[in-house]
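Today's session is about reading a structure prediction critically. Students often jump straight to the picture, but the first step is always the sequence itself: look for stretches that repeat, for charged clusters, for runs of hydrophobic residues. Only then move on to the predicted structure, which in these notes is written as discrete structure tokens rather than atom positions. Here is the chain we will use throughout the hour.
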Amino acid sequence: MADSDVNIEVGNSKIPFENISNLVFHTGNIANWNRLRRQAAQSPDEELVESIKATLSSWLPTVNVEELAGKETVTACNRAYIQKIEDSERKQLKLSVKLFLTNWDPSVLKEAVSRTLCDLGVSQIDVLIIAFPDLGDEELTLEMMQPLWRAMEEMVENKILLFLGVSDLCKTKLEELFNWAKKFCLQTLWGKHWCQRVERTQGQGGCPNG
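Below is the predicted structure for this chain, in token form.
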């Protein structure tokens, strides 16, 4: 995942990033992070970077570099905020998950959802919101979004997800996706709450109350 020129020191030792192919950041429940709550106007990229930096800062002091030797997958986590949802609590909670995608592979999206379900100890997510990968100067097209959205709709059919949403799409792209999609519910914009609420479902009822 990282090239051999990237090094982070822990004490007098360096983390062997050249041997690590997957570095998983587990932020825990960021709703409990006062540091992030105070920055509600962050863009998706800024929110993601801040979450990773905070997780890395809390994880590094706990690292035993020798234990990382030979590992291809390493999980960096902030254990203070990791919590599974108790069965007694689940019915009282509306569980929303936001995914910041870094590539267009639907299998990666499904893996992220599966990992989230496992980490939280639940079988279903009420609302899944995705932020599409940053394209720089390249224009986002409906054809790029479709494979990911099909994967999400499949998870709705399998009752893994209830409602779908997307973050920070311009009006034109939002309309294209909405008109094509079978299931669509929420659009969120940087720095705002549920700023647009649209619905296109088949046999799924209405949108959850925001």
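Discussion point for the tutorial: The CA atoms of residues 97 and 162 lie 12 Å apart.
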